Amino acid sequence: MLVFAPLLLTAVVAVPTQTVLESSGPRPLVIWHGLGDTAHSKGMNQFADFVRDEYPGIFVHSVVSPNGGSPSDEQKAGWWGVGEELSQGGCDQIKSIPELQDGFDAIGFSQGGLFLRWYAQNCDGPPVKNLITFGTPHFGITDLIPCPDPPTLTCTLASRAAKAGIYTRWAQSHLIQAQYYRDPVRMRQFLQTNTFLRDLNGEKDMDEEGGFRRENGGRGLGGLENVVAIAFRDDITVVPRVSTHWATIDPDNSSHVIPLEEQEMYVGDFIGLKRLAQKGGLHRLFCPGQHMDLGGEGGCGDRMVRKWVGWPA
Ligand SMILES: *[C@@H]1O[C@H](CO)[C@@H](O)[C@H](O)[C@H]1NC(C)=O
C-alpha cells in the first residue's frame, strides 16, 4: 500500500478540482411519458420528484411532445400524428438542453419508450447510456390499446379510424398506434406500408421470408451501455405483452411464444441487440401487475430506478 500511495496522490492532484466535482454527480435523466399522459402530469411529476429525492442534484427532463405543445396537444399527440415527427421533436428538444450535452439515461413509459428508442437510434444529439423502458411494445401490438374508461373522444375516434384499415396509407400517416401495429399474419402489408416500427427494428428491407439485412435501424442499440426492457406480468393493455421483450406469438399456435433469440432481426443483428446481449447490456426484466403498475413507494418502479439510474456521470 505504502508503495502505491504517492502515485495515487499525484494522480488526484493532477486532476483539476472542478472536473472531479462535476464528474462525480449523477448522470442526467430524460423521461418520456406514455399514451394519453403529459410531460408534467401529476404522475410524471411524482416520478421525477422520486428520482430527485433518490439522487440529490440529478438533472431530470420530462419530454414535452409535441415540442412546445400544451398539455392538451400532448394528450392528442399520443393518438394522432406521425411517430417519426414526434420523435424528431424530442430530438430537437433534447439537443437544446445544455445539461444533457454529455449524454444521459432515459426512461420511456409504454409508447414513450418507442420515441426514445427512435432518439437513441436516429437523433444526432447526445448519446443515451442506459435506456429503460416500462411496458414498451418494442415488437408492436396486434390489438389496439383499449380506450380509458370512460373513453375520451380522441381515443374513440382514433380507434374507430384504426379499425377501418390499420395498414392503409392514411392510418399509417395519421394514427400513432397504427405505426406500431405489427401483425405476424399480415407481414407483407406491414413491411410495405409501415415505416416507424419497421425501421426501428431494422426490418425495412426484409421480405416475408426474413432475410438478413439491416436497414434503416439507424445506429441501432449496440452502442448503448444497457437496454433494460421491463414487462408487466399481467399486462392486458399491450397485446401481446411479450412484445415488450421483442417476442411474438406464433400465429399458428397461440400458446407458443417466439422469443427474441429466434427473431430474424436478432439472428441477423439488424439493430445491434445481439451485440448488446453479448456484452451483457441487454436486460429483459419483469414487474408484477398490470400495464404501468409501478407498485407505488418501494415498488418495482422504484427498484428499477435504484438499480439503473443515477450512476456517476
Ligand atoms: C403449441 O405450443 C405449445 C407451447 O410451445 C406446445 O406445448 C404445443 O405442443 C403446441 N401445439 C401444437 C399443436 O403444436
Automatic annotation (TrEMBL):
Q: Superkingdom of this entry's organism? A: Eukaryota
Known EC number: 3.1.2.22
One annotated GO molecular function is: palmitoyl-(protein) hydrolase activity
Main EC class of this protein?
A: hydrolase
Identify the keywords attached in UniProt to this record, alphabetized.
Disulfide bond, Glycoprotein, Hydrolase, Signal
Similarity section? Belongs to the palmitoyl-protein thioesterase family.
Q: What is this protein called?
A: Palmitoyl-protein thioesterase 1
Native species of this protein?
Cutaneotrichosporon cavernicola
Q: What does UniProt list as this organism's lineage?
A: Eukaryota, Fungi, Dikarya, Basidiomycota, Agaricomycotina
